[in-house]
Amino acid sequence: MGSGAWLRLLLTLAALGGIGARETQLGVLGEATQLRVPRELQTRTEKFGEASWKKITGKPLKKKLLLRVSGGSPMEFEPGRLRFHRQNFSLEILNTSRDDGRLYEYSVYTGSEEEVWQIQLEVLERVADPSIRILARELSNGSCWLELSCSSERGDEVSYSWDSRDSRDNGTGGLCRANGSVLALSFPLRSAAFGCVCTAQNRVSRGRAAFDAAQCGSQHRDVRGVRTELLVPLVVPSAIIIILAIVVIVTCRATRSAKCGPDPSQVTPDPAQVTPASATIYAQVQRVQRPKGAATSAAPPSCTTIYAAATGPPPAPDGAPRSPARSPTLRGRSPLSQEPTTVYASVTLPVV
C-alpha cells in the first residue's frame, strides 16, 4: 500500500471518527513558520475549491477561523500575522510567538464530506552559541586536571555533548567524549596538543564552542587551586601603596627646601651658638670626729650635700680671641656634641 493510499485511509477514518490525521511540526521563535498541506488535500482543494484553516484555541474545543477558501478565492482573517500561499494552500505564520504553539486544522469540503488534516505546532527558541568556562584547574607533577562547563544563554530544551575537535581523536583516547554540560579531563601537559568541542543543540538548531587543552598550562606549574581572580585583590593594593610611596618621596625631595626643611646632616652649626654642656658636681661633706676630751661646740655642724652646676668658661671680652671650651668629652666624638659629666668631690669639715 502506497503513501497515498495510507493518507486516504487516515482521512477516511478521520472523517468517520471526527478526528483528523495529525503530524507534529516545529517552529522557531521569532521566525516565519509555514504550515504545509499534503499533496492529496491540495488536489482535492483544487477540485472542489472549498477549504479553511482553523486554530484550536482551548478546551473544550474552540476553533478560530484563520482563512477561508471559497470558489478558489481566499479570505484572510489575520492578514498582518498570516500569509496564504495559493500554489500549495499552505499557511505561513510571519512572526512565530509562544502562543502560536497550538493545534491547527486544514479542512477540505467535498460536497457532503469534510476531510481534515491537523498539525501540532511546537515553538522552540534557537540555541545561542555556547561558552566554555573552567570550573576547576589543578597542576601537579607535570599533569593537568580540568573541570569544564558548557552553557548557552538562550534556547529551549537544550542538550549538551562533548567530543574531540579532531574527528580522528588524535590519540587522546576519547578524553573529550561525554554527555552533559560538564566535562572532567586529566592528562599530561606534554600531551596537551588536542582540543575539545562542546555542542549545544535542540530540535531546531545547534551551536558549538571549542576548548584548547594547552590552556591548562597557562598557570604556573605545581600551584594547586590558585585562582587568578583571587590574586587581583592582593596585587592591586600593594602596587598602589608602592606607587604612592614613590610619589611622596620624589615630591619631598623636590620641595625639601620649601616644605620638608633642610636635611639635618647638611647643617653646620655655629660654634658661637653652642652652649657648653653643664656638669653637676656632687660634693660629699664629712665631719671629722673630734678627739675625746675636746670641748664641745655649742652648735656642731651637720653633714651637708652640695650640688653645683659646672659650666664652661665665661665668654671672652669683645675683640678678644675666643678660646675653645675645655670640657670633658668622649673619645671619638666632636667637641660640639658634649655630654654631661659627673664630678665627685669629697669635702671634709675642719675639726671643731
Report on the biggest sheet: 6 strands, mixed
Percentage beta strand: 35-45%
Q: What spatial form do the alpha-carbon principal axes imply? A: elongated
Rounded Rg: 54 Å
Question: Structural class, from secondary structure content?
Answer: alpha+beta
Unreliably modeled segments: 1-19, 219-232, 271-283, 293-300, 302-311, 322-338, 345-352
First CA to last CA: what distance? 161 Å
* Strand and helix order: HEEHEEEEEEEEEEEEEEHHEEE
Tell me the total number of β-strands.
19
Explain what the structure shows.
The chain has 352 residues and is of the alpha+beta class. The strands form five sheets. It has a six-stranded mixed beta sheet with strand order 1-9-8-3-4-5. Strands 13-12-15-16 form a four-stranded antiparallel beta sheet, with no helix packed on it. It is elongated, with a radius of gyration of 54 Å. The longest helix is centred in the C-terminal third of the chain and has 27 residues, at 228-254. The protein has helices at 3-17, 39-48, 228-254, 256-260, and strands spanning 21-28, 33-35, 50-58, 62-70, 73-76, 82-85, 90-93, 103-110, 113-124, 131-140, 143-151, 159-164, 178-179, 182-188, 195-201, 206-212, 279-287, 305-310, 342-349. It has four helices and 19 strands. 16% of the residues lie in helices and 38% in strands.
Short description:
This protein is an alpha+beta fold. The chain has helices at residues 3-17, 39-48, 228-254, 256-260, and strands spanning 21-28, 33-35, 50-58, 62-70, 73-76, 82-85, 90-93, 103-110, 113-124, 131-140, 143-151, 159-164, 178-179, 182-188, 195-201, 206-212, 279-287, 305-310, 342-349.
